[in-house]
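[job 0412] stage=fold_complex status=start
inputs:
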Amino acid sequence: MKKSIIRVISLALLLGLTVIGAASCAQTADFIVGFDADFPPYGYIDDNGEYTGFDIELAKEVAMRNGWSIELKAIDWDTKDFQLESGSINCIWNGFTMTGREDDYTWSAAYVDNSQVIVTSSASGISSISDLAGKTLAVQSDSSAESVMTDGENPEMLALTASLKELKRYPEYNTAFIALESGAVDAIAMDIGVAKYQIASRTGFIMLDEILATEQYGIGFLAGNTELRDAVSKTLKELMDDGTFDRLAERFGIDGAIKW
Amino acid sequence: MFRLLLEGMGNTLLIFFVTLIASLPVGLGVSFCRMSKKPIIRWVTKIYISIMRGTPLMLQLLVVRYGPYLLFGIRCTDAYDIYAVLIAFIVNYAAYFAEIYRSGIESVPVGQYEAAQILGFGKVQTFFTVILPQVIKRVLPSITNETITLVKDTSLAFAIGLVEMFTRAKQIASKETSMLPYLFAGILYYIFNYAVAFGMEKAEKAFGYYEIK
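[job 0412] stage=fold_complex status=done
writing structure:
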């Protein structure tokens, strides 16, 4: 009796796994974009439950002009490399910093000039980067702000990081801001576009004029996937030429933050 | 905002019900293997249970989702995400349920088997008509515990990119730059778990027929 139960269960399991395996290794959409949905104004969820943002709208436009079906896949930012390599997404398109990651992906041309800035509360008394000595600084885990702060080849940044009391990593900026508001950290290092969105929708925060680092955003494809990269880059160039790009930048409030 | 959260509830409910419905019977099979008279089956099952209980579910999710690629180079698209979540949850929860069943089955006095044998019951009949009903009533409180944990564990599914209610709450919170969506998510989880606990309490009453009052 026991044996027959075990046999039936294991047979059913095997059968199920085979069906799943056969069904799920086919591509579900022509173009699967991986992004962090906690990253306004580049990628976030709107009031209707649809994903939107500067990068998302650009991606949709590119897919439309190429006649591709698009799938927007919100991912856990820490698992982006896994997802890209295993094929569950085709590209990472979400305020994705090229600087420092040049060799890890096949990149589109840079399409945004970004800066890393420091955000702090207006009452903190921090007014320049050198004031950060002895303070706790927050960054998003696996973000370019984190890699700027921990760049082994930049002695200036290493000295700054060493002067901090602590460099704390948070999963997304919302949590980092609660930490800042509650006094758990003294400042946050982040992308300028995101900083502007956060400061505009909260009260009592300021952005330092001094810039930590300048860098560029690109669209990251799996290393070697030049075919898709070329197709996307070509359409992106068209969007820049016909003004769609500028219109979207204005709509998402990052035209001032971006210089191109 | 509440509507968006409820949309995210879809995946949460899917993971919950499929895992529960599948892992309860699978767990029973596993518990038989765990108590098998053949040492090899018993040991293999012991090792399986030990790994499932000894490693984080989040890690198991990553292994099921990305293992095929990392080990064999098979690229699966995101259609596989939901299956990977379900497989990992079922395999994990079956291990816990198996141990709960074992505690229940081994607590049934040997006299019950002897009495059934004297009455001329076969092995199968003995198990399903005499032993199993007693086991179920004994393990229900432990099952309730696991089931409630399951409701909350569904939030781990986002580790491999499946958006469920908690992730949805996080996204809304980021967009609104407020913590309020988390509060609503908490309330929804509480309501869900209250319903689970309520249902299980009813089940315990239904199985309480030979309690001495």
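[job 0412] summary: The radius of gyration of chain A is 21 Å.
[job 0412] exit 0
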